[in-house]
Amino acid sequence: MDRQELQKLRDLPIEGVAERLGLRVRMHKALCPFHDDHHASLSFSVRRNTFRCFVCGASGGPIDLVMKYLNKTFLEACRWLTDSPLTPPCEGGEWSPRQQLSTPSPHRGGQGVESYARYFEHPWLNDEARHFLYDERRLDPRVVRWCRLTSWKDKRQVPWLQIPYYDREGRLVGVQNRNLGLTPIPSPKGDGSLTLQGEVGGSAPRFRFPQGSECGIYNLPVLNLLQPGEALYITEGCSDCWAMLSAGHKAIAIPSATLLKKRDVAQLSIINSQLSTKFRMYPDRDEPGERLFLQLQELLPNLEHLQLPPDCKDFSDYYLSHKTAV
Ligand SMILES: [Zn+2]
């Protein structure tokens, strides 16, 4: 990279770069992503094209911001700035969750997850969450913001990613916690397969759902952004959904590797009757994946079958191999 190109990156408007990283800039300020901030301590100087946090001391220019936020080296950050698309993957993708009603909705009969809504008002990603989402999964930060992913640690310091499920109107209906303290290690069976274990997360389950969670179809608010004639992708599980969104497609996810529940089937039928849209799916390259596709095709007759290359087991794989190739 020559000096001129480098200068171009240094001259990229700092607030625009912050927005590409998923930060929400208002009046030259944003919530600082480098500490658990609730008061918009990060300031931008448009004149000097720099950022500075008055609480934790983080500061620098556009390249520093990308390096620090995405844990990237200088060269990687330059490449990210050159390659990352300017238009958000979820165009017009700003939305606020609906205010929760304090009374549980009658159809649930019991306590829902309304009390969790406040955790997603100011999503905050700890180091483990950023490593998982940006280093391992290479997601677009704007997708992470759109999905309002947040993180926390329990009393034993196990890091968790907290994933909210909203209905189409933006009401929180479910919460999924994913254990980030687990790392893949060779299976004790010695057959070359991997199991998940970890010093911090090992004694906790991989997923946790608070009582009252209804984690059915994921990312329903995206339906409100769908343009006439635009295809809607169906993925299996939220990880594939994030990859699909980061690849620039509109996507919803059905719960991973399970048979469809009655409620999800009903929801899909409603979506099919309300939207005159094409549905597309890359089934996982295995028997359950194909079975799921056939099951969905009965509900969505115009569901198109897309084929993953032979060396990719699911869309996340495909997205990552494509990302690495770029
Ligand atoms: Zn700070």
How is this structure best described in words?
This protein is of the alpha+beta class. The chain has ten helices and 14 strands. The protein has helices at 3-10, 14-20, 62-70, 74-83, 127-136, 141-146, 238-246, 262-274, 287-299, 315-325, and strands at residues 29-30, 42-45, 50-53, 59-60, 150-153, 159-166, 172-179, 183-186, 194-197, 207-208, 232-236, 250-254, 279-281, 303-305. The strands form four sheets. Strands 1-2-3-4 form a four-stranded antiparallel sheet, covered by helices on one side. β6 (159-166) and β7 form a beta hairpin. It is globular, with a radius of gyration of 21 Å. The mean pLDDT is 86. Zinc ion is lined by residues 32, 34-35, 37, 41, 53, 55-56, 58.
Order of strands across the main sheet:
1-2-3-4
Helix proportion range: 25-40%
Strand composition percent: 15-25%
Q: What is the overall number of helices?
A: 10
Which spans of ≥5 residues are poorly predicted at pLDDT below 50?
A: none
Outline? globular
What is the straight-line distance between the termini? 16 Å
Spatial extent as radius of gyration: 21 Å
Order of helices and strands: HHEEEEHHHHEEEEEEEHEHEHEH
Query: Number of DSSP strands?
Result: 14
Mean pLDDT: 86
The major β-sheet equals:
4 strands, antiparallel
Structural class: alpha+beta
Bound molecules: zinc ion
